[in-house]
Amino acid sequence: MEKVNVKEKFSLFNDHWNPRIAGEVNDSHIKLAKLKGEFDWHHHEQEDEMFYVVKGELLLKFKDSEDVLLKEGEFLIVPKGVEHKPVAEEEAHVILIEPKTTLNTGNIKNERTRENLERL
Amino acid sequence: MEKVNVKEKFSLFNDHWNPRIAGEVNDSHIKLAKLKGEFDWHHHEQEDEMFYVVKGELLLKFKDSEDVLLKEGEFLIVPKGVEHKPVAEEEAHVILIEPKTTLNTGNIKNERTRENLERL
Fold first, then answer.
1. Which class is B6-99 in CATH?
2. Fewer CB within a 10 Å sphere, N or C end of chain A?
3. Of B2, B54, B74, the CB nearest to A3
């Protein structure tokens, strides 16, 4: 059992769209990710996904509902099946909480897909 | 899909040791709790429990290992089965992430047990 200082862990990496695992709570992973720019449209067939912004701002775009801009200290849970596209104009630091089975690009596989995530 | 501003949600209640549900991610609940004083020793038979401090400080006492003091922006995951006692000298605001089945007092039931938690 070791405590995690979120800011310290974020200082350990600098690349974008490459989530790291910072902890596990039963079937869920706690991941840290630095996001900048536009990600791909995707959805997760079976998994809800929580985005919690700890620094910066994250725009979550949706095809079937209004976009949501998350600021520091705000979170949104994207339910399974919902098509979404994360966009960060400036770098955002985000905690992701989602089932361990969740793939970052969801239903698609491309050059941004990350598997076997690093543990912090 | 509505975003949650954590600070705003914490402003909606004032009692201690009475977690509210702020979201659900598949089998897990995201709970907010204000803690002050000493809670009871307990463990959760089947559930890991994550304590993420967003304001103040939380001391987690353990019978079989060193106590851990969590400050703002730090979290600890207490694995299932591990006896623990949360203590907050001053009021602490804490996000709890744990399976929906988790009871706040774990293996014991007493006057501090909270069931059918309020949703924020």
1. mainly beta
2. N
3. B74
Is the ipTM, as predicted for this complex, more than 0.85?
Answer: yes
| Tens of pLDDT, residues B4-53 | 999 999 999 999 999 999 999 999 999 999 999 999 999 999 999 999 99
- Contact (CB<8Å) B28/A23: no
Residues of B in contact with A74 (CB under 8 A): 3-6
Contacts (Cβ under 8 Å, ≥6 apart) of B22: B4, B6, B9, B30, B31, B32, B95, B119, B120
Q: What is the DSSP string of A11-72?
A: TT---BS--EEEEEETTEEEEEEEEEEE---B--SS--EEEEEEES-EEEEESSS--EEE-T
Identify which of A23, A54, A73 has the shortest CB distance to residue B5.
Answer: A73
Question: Searching chain B, which residue's CA lies closest to the CA of residue A71?
Answer: B5
Indicate the residue of A30, A74, A97 with minimum beta-carbon distance to B3.
Answer: A74
CB contact under 8 A, B68 and A97: no
- pLDDT tens by residue, A39-72: 999 999 999 999 999 999 999 999 999 999 999 9
